[in-house]
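Severity: low
Component: inverse-folding endpoint
Summary: output formatting inconsistent between runs
Steps to reproduce: submit the following structure tokens with default settings.
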């Protein structure tokens, strides 16, 4: 029995107690309102203030409707309709995005008196969207993402009024949306062995967060902090009594190309022995640091290394991954 397991046994009753108290607290309604406020959206601004002079510049979405009826009717069917429920005028309805409209209305539709997205840089429009979405879990890393730093903005992928997709206001569905800019990813997924993204089985979004993650390549991690691959390939996670070191240190992409490959099992090289021998060179025993090379010879019968070393991702029974 591992020390870890014993610790679990000692603490489990305490954890259970805490859970029960937690549930009781929630049932009394002590926890819920807080949770609801954080989960729905960061769109909720700090409590509504008393009307200020700026507030009086807000006219409300119904007023916009009088002249922009068609836009209003379309918009009313989008998730942004929910902003009309916000008590804070600056976060409410059309003006939550377009800013206060009184002067625009007084000017009979003066375009210089309203925030027009087209007239602003991607950085500016994204910042505007982030006034409400910035603290949302999915978008919180946007500012530091590869997309933001390459001048890709929210409106390259989303459109509040002219979305082509019923979900998430996307201008195009995945993966086509992504292929429009990522030609090499498109080529990878067309290779004979690939994750079935084009077939709709999994999405780019399963492994990446297009809004950035703070990790390299905008790759997602599990809540536990583990590599995203374990979400679906649970059996590779272990922990194993005998770990194959590179799986844990260098990660899955030290042997696999995650998008697609001309080699079976998405391997980086076509012959398994060539893959293994990239690291397990015979003379690496002599060079400091490198993993041990196989002592057995390299005659034909040894070339399909995984015939014998078949639990290559780690094993609980064999230090050389036989079973
Ligand atoms: C979530 C932010 C957001 C909200 C809320 C919003 N708009 Fe827009 N609006 C935009 C963006 C962004 C554009 C630029 C076009 C696009 O990407 O859809 C735009 C464009 C427009 C245009 C230019 C014409 C066009 O079709 O592109 C008008 C007019 C307009 N909005 C009016 C309104 C009215 C009226 C409302 C309320 C019913 C509203 N907007 C609510 C973000 C918003
Ligand atoms: C009195 C009528 C009227 C009202 C009320 C009104 N607008 Fe307008 N709006 C116009 C006219 C007219 C234009 C100019 C259209 C043009 O020149 O193409 C315009 C243009 C706009 C544009 C720029 C469209 C573009 O072509 O880029 C936006 C955005 C906009 N309105 C948003 C709003 C919002 C938000 C409200 C509510 C706060 C609102 N409007 C209320 C009449 C109105
Ligand atoms: C490179 C394309 C891309 C960019 C840029 C982008 N998004 Fe998204 N966004 C997506 C895709 C794809 C989804 C759908 C994800 C899914 O299926 O869960 C999505 C989903 C969302 C959602 C709904 C999902 C959720 O739970 O949060 C919101 C809200 C959103 N994006 C806001 C934004 C905002 C705000 C910006 C700019 C700061 C932005 N996006 C920039 C591609 C993009
Ligand atoms: C005034 C606050 C506010 C602003 C500004 C705002 N949003 Fe939103 N957005 C919301 C709210 C509220 C929702 C609905 C969230 C929900 O359903 O829980 C929403 C929903 C969305 C969704 C759809 C989420 C889904 O699950 O389908 C997308 C995509 C999105 N917003 C993108 C944008 C983009 C792009 C901008 C900038 C042009 C923007 N938003 C600006 C408040 C805002
Ligand atoms: C408007 C063009 C555009 C669209 C659409 C787009 N991207 Fe990107 N993406 C870029 C640019 C530009 C970069 C930064 C340069 C690069 O690394 O290719 C980038 C970077 C990335 C990166 C990080 C690459 C790295 O080297 O760090 C990932 C992952 C990514 N995009 C995934 C996606 C996904 C998934 C989608 C679809 C939901 C998408 N992109 C849609 C333009 C786009
Ligand atoms: C099975 C998980 C997975 C899926 C699905 C996936 N990616 Fe990736 N992607 C990765 C990983 C992991 C990396 C990092 C590879 C590395 O650094 O060796 C990566 C790297 C990238 C890069 C950086 C450049 C490159 O090619 O290495 C881009 C751009 C990218 N992915 C875009 C996409 C797009 C677009 C889609 C959907 C069409 C997609 N990815 C689907 C896991 C995935
Ligand atoms: C969203 C779920 C999901 C995620 C995340 C995921 N995979 Fe997969 N993977 C699959 C599915 C489903 C298959 C089954 C094969 C197919 O598509 O036909 C597969 C197949 C594979 C295969 C080939 C198996 C074979 O028999 O040919 C390899 C290798 C692989 N994945 C590696 C990875 C790596 C590495 C990552 C992380 C970068 C990853 N996967 C992330 C779902 C996922
Ligand atoms: C040291 C190299 C190496 C690393 C690192 C590695 N793999 Fe593999 N993987 C292989 C080899 C070799 C095969 C083919 C085995 C065979 O042909 O029997 C394989 C096969 C697979 C398969 C298909 C067969 C099966 O066992 O299900 C999946 C799925 C897979 N790997 C996922 C992953 C994931 C996920 C990671 C990261 C956690 C990973 N691999 C890391 C070498 C590696
Ligand atoms: C990315 C480098 C890398 C690749 C590729 C790789 N290994 Fe390893 N392997 C290691 C490291 C590092 C160790 C840790 C043991 C050490 O330091 O000697 C190890 C350990 C082993 C061990 C256990 C050795 C022992 O004495 O306990 C075996 C068996 C093994 N690898 C077989 C394989 C086979 C078979 C392949 C090809 C499918 C392979 N390895 C691919 C790096 C790699
Ligand atoms: C016919 C079965 C078989 C094949 C095929 C095979 N091995 Fe082995 N391998 C063994 C045996 C048996 C051992 C010794 C196990 C022990 O010490 O208990 C071993 C041990 C190892 C070790 C640990 C160091 C050592 O020599 O004791 C490494 C590393 C290794 N093999 C790598 C490889 C690589 C790389 C390949 C493919 C080029 C390969 N093996 C092919 C049976 C095989």
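Observed output (run 2 of 3):
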């Amino acid at each position: 029995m591992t020390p870890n397991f014993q610790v679990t046994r000692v603490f489990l009753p305490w954890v259970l107690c805490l859970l029960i108290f937690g549930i009781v607290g929630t049932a009394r309604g002590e926890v819920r309102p807080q949770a609801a406020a954080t989960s729905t959206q960061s769109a909720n601004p700090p409590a509504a203030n008393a009307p200020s002079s700026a507030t009086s510049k807000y006219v409300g979405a119904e007023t916009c409707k009088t002249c922009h009826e068609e836009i209003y009717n379309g918009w009313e069917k989008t998730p942004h309709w929910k902003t009309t429920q916000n008590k804070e005028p600056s976060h409410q309805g059309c003006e939550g995005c377009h800013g206060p409209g009184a002067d625009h209305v007084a000017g009979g539709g003066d375009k210089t008196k309203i925030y027009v997205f087209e007239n602003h840089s991607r950085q500016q429009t994204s910042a505007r969207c982030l006034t409400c979405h910035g603290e949302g879990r999915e978008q919180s890393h946007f500012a530091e993402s590869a997309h933001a730093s390459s001048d890709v903005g929210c409106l390259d992928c989303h459109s509040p009024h002219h979305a082509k997709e019923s979900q998430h206001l996307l201008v195009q569905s995945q993966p086509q949306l992504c292929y429009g800019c990522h030609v090499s990813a498109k080529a990878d997924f067309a290779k004979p062995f690939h994750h079935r993204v084009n077939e709709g089985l999994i999405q780019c979004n399963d492994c990446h967060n297009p809004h950035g993650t703070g990790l390299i390549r905008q790759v997602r991690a599990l809540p536990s902090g583990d590599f995203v691959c374990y979400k679906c390939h649970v059996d590779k996670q272990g922990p194993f009594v005998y770990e194959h070191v590179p799986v844990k240190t260098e990660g899955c992409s030290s042997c696999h190309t995650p998008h697609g490959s001309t080699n079976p099992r998405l391997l980086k090289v076509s012959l398994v022995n060539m893959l293994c021998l990239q690291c397990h060179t015979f003379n690496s025993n002599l060079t400091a640091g490198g993993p041990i090379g196989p002592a057995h010879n390299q005659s034909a019968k040894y070339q399909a290394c995984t015939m014998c070393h078949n639990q290559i991702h780690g094993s609980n029974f064999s230090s050389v991954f036989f079973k």
